[in-house]
Amino acid sequence: MTYLKSNDLFGQLTPETLYRRLPRPIVIADHLLTPDNMGALIRLADNIGATEVCFLGKEDEHRLGKVRRAAASSRDNIHWYFSEETDLRKIVPEGKKIVAIETADNATCIYDTPLPEDVAFVVGSESHGLNEDLLAQCDTVVYIPVPGPTRSLNVSHAAAVALFEWQRQMRSRTRGYESCDTRPDIPSPVAPRPVSKTYKHIFFDLDRTLWDFDAAAEVAFERIYDKYNLKKLGIPSAHEFHEVYHPLNERLWELYRADKITKDYLNRTRFVLPLEHYGIHDTNLADHLSEDYVYWSPRIVRLVPGTKELLEYLKPKYHLHLITNGFQEVQHTKLSGSGLEPYFETLTVSEEVGVKKPNPEIFYYALRKAHATAEESLMIGDEMAVDIDGARAAGIDQLFFNPNKELVEGGRTYEVHELLEVMELV
Q1: How far is residue 398 CA from its own chain's centroid?
Q2: pLDDT of residue 88
Q3: Which of 71, 122, 141, 394 is 20 to 30 A removed from 358 (C-alpha atoms)?
Q4: Contact status, residue 159 vs residue 27, Cβ threshold 8 Å
Q5: Exposed, middle or buried, 37 (CB in 10 Å: 0-12/13-18/19+)?
Q6: Closest by alpha carbon to 204, among 318, 371, 355, 373?
Q7: According to CATH, where is 3.40.50.1000 located in the chain?
Q8: SS3 state of residue 146
């Protein structure tokens, strides 16, 4: 018996016929207190194929970073949101039955209770459970028997038991359902290698595709942490500060890409928020941290493994180009300081175009700048929603660089997990 990583095993399996026809569940959580539980619920809902997670209660900006970290990649795979609505029927789509997972006088054992196909599961808070007003709105209340000495379940564990018991029941009700081990010989949505396509132009994303953005940022944070003696302000370490900063910064970049905030607002705010996480309300310090970070991060050269070898291989064979959403002065500094600049004939930065990836206009602009056509071009990037979807919308073949082997929905022409695998495809 050989150990397989979960992504490798589940990547071989195809969705069962039964599961494809089932309505997907939703999960509702009543006033959860801990970000770890909230993130675990998001990840669990993603695992089971639920359509959404609703957190009842007011959205708390200070907790969002921790929630996103706990949810890991699932935070981008499933719709999750906050609602102060008290009427569950305004949240739950019509036709779904509402099942509460709670200990109550009218609750029945989940293993003895037929669960509905089309279901919304509701769980209560860690301290007070599900309040009686919400409990009264539920169609069914089930409990999970706990035989051990600690007679309570963590909320995310309880939801996991319920969701997978629901899946088990749905499978057992249907005769002749397919085995979990079914691996039918069906065409892959990702072509293993080009058959007859000949490319002349290859376009790359920069950050996290060639430039190891996160590794450079870690070092930059260590420098500003020491320079401003942030330990005295109650921030335990540069690493933890970066962990708090990262999801907040990602959210600001999402807003920037959607043209909801400006570059100046992004630069001004991305250190205000993580400082406020530690109770530090000092915009002057935030400005200094931002200035130093913008200076250091593009000057600390960290490349994704295989970058130079791949570019050396491609340069004699193809016209190479870059398309990036980063800021012009920062990206030029990265290229000149890292020695990557000579490999590329053109650099297209969103600031010069006026639109950002995934808007196809930036890809059209880059094609014109490179004197290339979509038919003879290939786009390589690490973000499905930004690089791959945008290139596909512009009619350009796409290569998804997926180093973490995440299960990401969406069509793409090719996929690799290491940069040097690109040599086998072009």
Answers
A1: 19
A2: 94
A3: 71
A4: yes
A5: buried
A6: 318
A7: 201-210+303-424
A8: coil
Backbone angles phi, psi at 82, to 5 degrees: -110, 150
Structure confidence by residue, pLDDT tens digits, 202-249: 999 999 999 999 999 999 999 999 999 999 999 999 999 999 998 998
Sheet holding 79-83, edge to edge: 79-83, 52-56, 26-30, 119-123, 97-101, 140-143, 108-109
Place of tokens 């795979």: 77
CATH fold for domain 6-172? Alpha/beta knot (3.40.1280)
Backbone φ/ψ region at 347: left (φ over 0), alpha (ψ -120 to 50), beta: beta
Residue 320 and residue 356 in contact, taking contact as beta carbons nearer than 8 Å: no
Q: How far apart are CA 367 and CA 387, in angstroms?
A: 14
Residue 230 DSSP one-character state: G
- Closest listed residue to residue 44, CA positions, set 69, 71, 23: 71
Question: What number is the average pLDDT over the span 335-345?
Answer: 95
CA 185 – CA 202 distance, rounded (Å) = 32
User: How far apart are the C-alpha atoms of 352 and 333, rounded to whole Å?
Assistant: 16
CA dist 322 to 17, 129, 203, 261, 379, Å?
42, 52, 5, 24, 9
Helices within 207-318 (DSSP H only):
213-227, 238-257, 263-269, 272-277, 283-296, 307-314
Based on the number of CB atoms within 10 Å of its own CB, is 16 exposed (0-12), middle (13-18) or buried (19 or more)?
A: middle
pTM: 0.55
**Burial class for 276, CB neighbours closer than 10 Å (0-12, 13-18, 19+):** middle
Tokens of 310: 């791949």
Tokens of 113: 């209770």
Cα separation, 283 vs 125, in Å, equals: 35
Q: What are the residue ranges of CATH 3.40.1280.10 in the chain?
A: 6-172
**Could you tell me which CATH class the domain 214-296 is placed in?**
mainly alpha
Query: Where in the chain do CATH 1.10.150.240 domains reside?
Result: 214-296
**Looking at residue 78, what DSSP letter applies?**
S
Give the burial string for 213-224 (b: 16+ CB within 10 Å, else e).
beebbbbbbbbb
Cα gap 78→167, rounded to integer Å:
18
Per-residue model confidence as pLDDT tens digits over 97-136: 999 999 888 899 999 899 998 999 999 988 788 888 999 9
